[in-house]
Write a structure and sequence with these properties.
Blueprint lengths: L2 E3 L4 E5 L6 H12 L2 E4 H14 L7 H5 L7 E3 L8 E3 L2 E2 L7 H11 L2 H20 L4 E5 L2 H5 L5 E6 L2 H11 L8 H15 L10 E4 L5 H14 L3 E3 L1
Parallel strand pairs: 2-7, 2-8, 3-7, 8-9
Antiparallel strand pairs: 1-10, 4-5, 5-6
Helix pairs in contact: 1-9, 2-4, 4-8, 7-8
């Protein structure tokens, strides 16, 4: 596309599950030549590991006793995003319904957030230090993780659209009916509420009736308008 980032450009993309932020963020990163960070994958990876270890996720003390054990590695190449735990690729397993239904519980624990936010800031700092820049997406990116980001976007969508997207994503799971997905989505929204507020200076985009290309184009346009990127 001929665009180049300005040194240290950070684009923060927040939004609830099903808003389309992960796919859009990757596409924006590719379009602008930025690195990409899926912060939600880090929480999912930790949740997956805790479940695999048989930890009772309703017992905060039990969770805290184990959170420093797994080695979570996340790649920042938007064309080939990678998430691994102790060297094993977990990109597939962390997306299953069981992890989705528990990740908010784990992510709500302040010590868990402190641990992973510190790591996320390290990754963002490394990308900005080289002048490459990064698109970071998840929750509380623009408010907590990278409050000084040059561009802040909050993606949202109607409850129906979000549930439909999630149901489609889980298409091979016979238990993932629209009714079940709606219930799970409502519970997750409630648990995620404390970390889901949009930054005061974020631009909100309702993706309900937009194509992926349209969402990406809008975010790229915002990046230009905020002078986070320039044409090469």
């Amino acid at each position: 596309m001929g665009e180049v980032t300005r040194p240290g450009a950070v684009i923060a993309i927040d939004g609830p599950a099903g808003s389309g932020k992960s796919t859009a963020a990757r596409r924006v990163a590719i379009a602008l030549g930025l690195r990409y960070l899926d912060t939600g994958a880090m929480y999912r990876a930790l949740t997956w590991w805790l479940l695999a270890e048989g930890v009772d996720l309703t017992d905060t003390a039990a969770v805290l006793a184990r959170i420093a054990e797994p080695r979570i590695e996340i790649g920042t190449d938007p064309r080939q995003p990678r998430i691994a735990v102790d060297g094993a690729d977990v990109a597939g397993p962390i997306r299953d319904r069981r992890v989705s239904n528990w990740v908010s519980t784990v992510a709500a624990i302040p010590q868990v957030r402190a641990l992973l936010v510190a790591r996320q800031r390290e990754i963002i700092g490394a990308a900005t230090a080289t002048g490459t820049g990064i698109v970071a997406e998840g929750r509380d990116i623009g408010t907590v993780v990278a409050p000084s980001a040059a561009v802040k976007v909050y993606l949202t969508a109607s409850e129906d659209v979000r549930a439909r997207r999630r149901s489609t994503e889980l298409g091979t799971d016979p238990a993932a009916t629209m009714a079940a997905v709606r219930r799970e989505q409502a519970r997750r929204d409630q648990r995620d509420a404390p970390q889901s507020a949009a930054a005061a200076d974020a631009v909100e985009i309702d993706t309900s009736a937009l194509t992926l290309d349209e969402v990406v184009d809008r975010v790229v346009a915002i990046a230009f308008s905020r002078r986070a990127v320039s044409r090469g």
